[in-house]
Amino acid sequence: MDRQVELHERRRKTYYHRVQYRQNWERVAEAMGYTTGRGAQDAAQMYAVEENKPWPVSSRSKGACIYLSRRHGMPWAKLARIYGESIKAVQACGYKWARRHELLWPPK
Question: From CA 44, how far away is CA 61, in angstroms rounded?
């Protein structure tokens, strides 16, 4: 794959990692293989500008992130690992968010 395409893809993944998991830039950097949070933030911003995506990334609540991740098929165990909580805790957080917004539970 062309180097520019590889960089663009890495920036894209970094941007969507931040959008999906609502993690701080240091955790995004760790997950995506950057040395610093600032490096990850710069990469995500480059992607956003190149693709005319919202910047800065709008924030979502933790419950919304959990619900949407689960809806896209992410296992509870992985969500628990990402948020550093038990499976029951992330399920409860997602459930409460879904109830507040009158959405189906469990997410389909």
Answer: 20
Which residue carries 């029951």 as its tokens? 88
The CA distance from 61 to 63, in Å, is: 5
Q: Mean pLDDT per 10-residue run, the chain (108 residues)?
A: 89 93 90 96 97 89 92 93 94 96 91
Report CA-CA distances (Å) from 33 to 36, 61, 88, 90, 92: 9, 25, 29, 25, 30
Question: For residue 105, what pLDDT is reported?
Answer: 94
Number of CB atoms found within 10 A of residue 31's CB: 16
Say what the pLDDT of residue 70 is: 93
Q: Where do the domains of the chain lie?
A: 3-51, 62-100
Tell me the C-alpha distance between 27 and 34, whole Å: 10
Would you say how long the chain is, in residues? 108
In this structure, are residues 103 and 63 in contact, taking their beta carbons and an 8 Å threshold? no
